[in-house]
Amino acid sequence: MLVRDYMTHDLVTVEPESRLSDALKTMRTHNIHRLPVIEDNLLIGIVSEKDLLYALPSADRPISWVEASAQAAALPVRQIMQQDLVTVGPDCPVELAAATMADHKIGALPVVSPPESRTLVGIITETDI
């Protein structure tokens, strides 16, 4: 069993200059928990719901929650996306992909082809497996 047999092919992505509020809206609209970040047709990062939560203001900051929330929502995805990505190729055994997710404590792997490139062809998640 290969990753290509289980991965999602029809991807929803975001650009690095997209606002965090738009990324969150896209996640909610499509009922997904992470978005690959694409620039010049190449994968440059990934942003997750958890990343968005960490970008929200904390209660100990001196500005108001409303002001801080507005500032955070206007930030570009580029400022909070994860850039140190673990990826797999479509011909990777699905068991190896599952083990990789477990080893790195992540819920999804971008699928790139060829494997040494950043050309995104899919994504495989814990749910897919």
TrEMBL record:
It comes from the Bacteria. Pfam families: CBS. Signal peptide: none annotated. Keywords: CBS domain. Gene3D superfamilies: CBS-domain. InterPro entries: CBS_dom (IPR000644), CBS_dom_sf (IPR046342), Diverse_CBS-Domain (IPR051257). SMART domains: CBS (SM00116). The keyword Nucleotide-binding does not apply. PROSITE patterns: CBS. Residues 7-63, 81-129 form the CBS domain. This is CBS domain-containing protein. The lineage of its organism: Bacteria, Pseudomonadati, Caldisericota/Cryosericota group, Candidatus Cryosericota, Candidatus Cryosericia.
